[in-house]
Specification:
The complex is a heterodimer of chains A (428) and B (309). Chain A has 428 residues and is an alpha/beta fold. Chain A is 52% helix and 13% strand. Chain A has 2 domains: 183 residues, Periplasmic binding protein-like II (D-Maltodextrin-Binding Protein, domain 2); 225 residues, Periplasmic binding protein-like II (D-Maltodextrin-Binding Protein, domain 2), CATH 3.40.190.10. Chain B contains 14 helices and no strands. The radius of gyration of chain B is 24 Å and the shape is flat. Classes of the chains: A alpha/beta (428), B mainly alpha (309). At the A-B interface, helix 3, helix 18 and helix 19 of A face helix 13 of B.
Chain lengths: 428, 309
């Protein structure tokens, strides 16, 4: 794919550079074209971006998507190579603080005019908007939102435990887990063994115990908050969760356990909203599970924000520039956001999309409501485990401590607090 | 290769026509040699340079002194990786040496089906490390692998959870790597055993040496050069081990099975810290030199002694 793009670009750049402007003037406008790289290649993610490409083509554009399957960082390696070679894609997937970091190494497109024309800013959560306009200018656009701390309950496991109340606080959660264990469910928590999985258990615990402390310690790296009692309490909660997990999972992803979860051999799962898409894709029904906001000790929902986004890289070619404008308009369009989120199981970035209609699940409706509540109560915070709160280097240093703590039960919560603070200090 | 070299060594000054005639030989040897040397040296120098710069997402110039080194050396990841390397490296080399030698000696007994057995033991070498790692990650997983098999056979108290036990997980990598590489040691040792002078063996037999004594006193001492070669080759494999661990444990549980190569990859490509990743890579190069320099020195002294022998 890259070779053909380059060759085509070379041809277009040399021969057609002279001919095209005249041709374009004769046509009235250039045909919008967009080169995109993302990690979305398969499953619901792949289906969603393919559908977006179809819409782009319907509007008369040429859609050139090169997926780089695997982790986000692998997509980043391709992006880095293209930037160093002076040939960035017109548009690429990138999210969180990485948008600010990467915008320093290559020029980006100022999207202020097109964002203002769509009156988009007032329908986006403020914390989220800030991430996409480093230096005060919009250079990237969020595409969809997930909460990383949704609580998935297995209906069959709830039946086994003779429980029907959805836990609200961590105390409720712990009580339900004990009840499930007493009801014969050996592993009340369905877990994965990957780094983000472990990170999610910690961020859900801390944000559920105190969103204020989460904001200070994890998002602002306040030294005092990092050594505060809430962090210790969060580590203690993580240990409880770890004791209820199947230790044999090794380094496998959470999806390995979905069948045992639905069958009621495992009871609860703390996972991002994307698990709904994965569950549905695997053929399970909405009746098999319940989705609720993650535990919050002050009973008001806490929303750990994870948002996928596109960043736009500066290009000289008029057709790519036209493509960038068209893409920006599409990404902000409520109809497109609806289509995208309905495929992936996320919720739209726009807070003004109505989710009461067909095609939305109860879980998505609850997630959207939780986001609204959380924003109103200042309890919408940025996810650490999914690289929204800090740049990759700092995130990885913190997750090192967390993942080791989850797997090594001889580390005490006190030690974990010290190590986390040290890791932050070392990575800064 | 040796043919080319031997025909090239002719006495007398090289004439123009001689050079022209031998031009293909020169090209064949020197061009690839210079290219790969330039490649190796320039990229090593470049990495060393990057390790002293504040590079993060992309290489930048600048000078931060040893800051990247001190930062890498202070992380738990690197400390665990280094300790693991010591343990894993010595276990890997020693065990594959012993297993390979035993296999070679057993195969050397002029048994029937030797070719088939030799192929079987060599076969793992043809499998890529990623495949080895993935297959062993299934076999060793207590939930689906060997432990479950033995439980299903009725021995329910059987316990084998090394893969998910952070103290023992490093040994699962040793198991996989021994499976993969002892065939290589075996092949080299077998060649060595076969090249032992038959007269020596006959002389020992006439002197009444039994098989054990024969191996211990006559045959094994002649295998020293091969042993050293196997150790050096396996050690540099051990130091650069990456794909096997990535497929088998991915550095886990937690960060219990980190190895230096994983740390380098992680810093450079996962965390976007090119400077620190380069520093870790240079540290790996130093470890490699610590192994290779003594070997080179040993070779040098061997060669100096050889003409007198």
């Amino acid at each position: 794919m890259p070779t053909t793009t380059t060759r085509r670009r070379l041809l277009a750049g040399s021969a057609a550079a002279l001919a095209l402007p005249a041709f374009a003037r004769a046509q009235g406008a250039v045909k919008p074209r967009l080169t995109v790289i993302s990690q979305w290649s398969a499953g619901s993610d792949g289906a969603a971006i393919t559908a977006l490409g179809k819409k782009f083509e319907e509007k008369g554009g040429v859609w050139q998507h090169s997926p780089v399957p695997g982790f986000t960082t692998e997509m980043m390696n391709k992006l880095r190579a293209q930037i160093i070679a002076g040939d960035p894609p017109a548009c690429s997937q990138l999210k969180g603080p990485e948008i600010a970091a990467w915008s320093k190494i290559a020029p980006t497109v100022n999207l202020d005019a097109v964002v203002a024309a769509a009156a988009y800013e007032k329908v986006v959560a403020p914390d989220l908007a800030r991430l996409h306009k480093p230096g005060g200018k919009w250079i990237a656009l969020p595409l969809q939102i997930y909460s990383t701390n949704m609580l998935f309950l297995s209906k069959r496991a709830m039946d086994k435990a003779k429980a029907d109340k959805i836990p609200v606080t961590w105390a409720d959660f712990n009580e339900l887990a004990e009840k499930m264990k007493a009801g014969g469910i050996i592993y009340p928590i369905a877990n994965g063994g990957t780094r983000p999985d472990d990170g999610q258990k910690f961020e859900a615990s801390l944000a559920g115990i105190s969103p204020t402390s989460y904001r200070a310690a994890i998002m602002n790296l306040d030294k005092k908050a990092l050594e505060g009692p809430e962090i210790k309490a969060a580590f203690a909660q993580v240990r409880k969760i770890a004791d209820w997990m199947d230790p044999n999972i090794g380094a496998q992803p959470y999806a390995t356990n979905l069948k045992r979860f639905v069958d009621g051999d495992m009871g609860m799962m703390i996972m991002g909203g994307w698990a709904q898409g994965v569950l549905r894709n695997a053929g399970f029904k909405f009746d098999d599970f319940i989705i609720a906001p993650g535990p919050s000790d002050n009973t008001k929902p806490v929303f750990l924000l994870n948002a996928d986004a596109f960043i736009f890289w500066q290009r000289k070619e008029p057709d790519l520039q036209a493509g960038q404008t068209l893409m920006a308009q599409l990404v902000m369009d409520p109809a497109i956001q609806t289509m995208y989120s309905q495929i992936t199981g996320s919720i739209p970035v726009r807070t003004d999309v109505d989710l009461s209609g067909e095609g939305w699940s109860d879980g998505q409706r609850r997630t959207a409501a939780a986001l609204k509540d959380a924003i109103a109560n200042n309890q919408a915070v940025l996810s650490l485990a999914h690289n929204m709160a800090q740049e990759n280097g700092l995130t990885a240093a913190m997750i090192d401590v967390i993942t080791e703590y989850v797997k090594n039960k001889t580390i005490t919560p006190e030690q974990a607090v010290t190590r986390l603070a040290e890791a932050v200090e070392g990575a800064r | 290769m040796t043919d080319v070299v031997s025909t090239a060594t002719r006495p007398g000054r090289p004439t123009i026509s001689g050079v022209a005639r031998r031009l293909p030989e020169y090209l064949l040897i020197w061009v690839p040699l210079l290219l790969s040397a330039a490649h190796l040296i320039s990229f090593s120098l470049w990495t060393i340079w990057i390790s002293f710069t504040p590079s993060t997402l992309v290489p930048v110039s600048g000078w931060v002194g040893l800051r990247n080194y001190t930062a890498v050396l202070a992380t738990r990841n690197w400390q665990i990786a280094f300790n693991n390397l010591l343990l894993f490296g010595s276990a890997f080399v020693l065990l594959s040496l012993i297993t390979g030698l035993i296999l070679a000696i057993l195969l050397d007994q002029r048994i029937r089906g030797e070719n088939v057995l030799r192929s079987i033991f060599l076969y793992p070498l043809a499998v890529s490390f990623v495949v080895t790692g993935t297959v062993w990650s299934w076999l060793l997983n207590p939930g689906i692998g060997i432990e479950k098999l033995v439980h299903d056979l009725g021995w329910t108290s059987f316990h084998f959870d090394w893969l998910v036990n952070r103290d023992m997980a490093i040994w699962t990598i040793v198991i996989a790597v021994i499976w993969q590489s002892s065939g290589f040691a075996m092949a080299l040792f077998l060649a060595g055993l076969r090249s032992v002078d038959a007269d020596l063996i006959k002389a020992a037999q006439i002197d009444g040496a039994g098989p054990i004594r024969m191996y211990r006193r006559v045959i094994l001492p002649t295998l020293w050069p091969i042993t050293i070669a196997v150790v050096v080759i396996q050690l540099q494999f051990a130091i650069s081990t990456f794909d096997l661990v990535r497929a088998l444990t991915n550095g886990g549980p937690g960060i219990a099975t980190q190895l230096p190569a994983l740390v380098v990859y992680d810093l450079m490509f996962q965390r976007g810290l090119l400077g620190r990743g380069a520093a870790a890579a240079v540290l790996m190069l130093l470890i490699l030199l610590a192994v290779l320099l003594p070997y080179a020195a040993w070779r040098y002294f061997q060669r100096r002694r050889a003409p007198h022998a």
